[in-house]
Design goal:
Elements lengths: L1 E8 L4 E2 L4 E8 L2 E9 L20 E8 H7 L12 E8 L5 E8 L4 E3 L4
Parallel strand pairs: 1-7
Antiparallel strand pairs: 1-2, 3-4, 3-5, 5-6, 7-8
Length: 117
């Protein structure tokens, strides 16, 4: 049923519209970029699913979120180097016929994720 993500900015209590994200397929010590995108005003990929139903495969993946640039763009003063710069979430797909939703809750100092629905 595909792969999706959603990012919420817990510092401001809003979706993280404008954050840059990159999706990679990983494995065997290598990573291959699949796509780059900027989150829309709802904190989601403007094109919908990152990988559509039927194209999702068993394997390992990484979502990289450009957290520091996003917060700097919102006017937040961050130290140099920032505590969080890029947040990389590595996850596995074992059942590609199921939907995998990978949300990120993030501030300049912390983040959380889980497998959503």
């Amino acid at each position: 049923m595909g792969l999706s993500t959603h990012v919420l900015d817990t510092m401001h209590g809003t979706p993280a519209g404008g954050m840059h994200v990159t999706l990679y397929q990983t494995g065997s010590g290598q990573s291959q970029e699949m796509r780059r995108f900027e989150l829309n005003s709802d904190g989601r990929n403007p094109d919908g699913l990152l990988i559509s139903d039927g194209a999702l495969q068993v394997g390992t993946y990484r979502l990289s979120f450009d957290v520091a640039s996003y917060f700097r763009g919102r006017g937040v003063t961050l130290p140099d180097p920032p505590f969080l710069d890029m947040v990389h979430l590595d996850f596995g797909i074992a059942r590609p016929r199921e939907h995998y939703h990978v949300p990120l809750l993030v501030s300049p100092w912390s983040y959380a994720t889980y497998r959503g629905s």
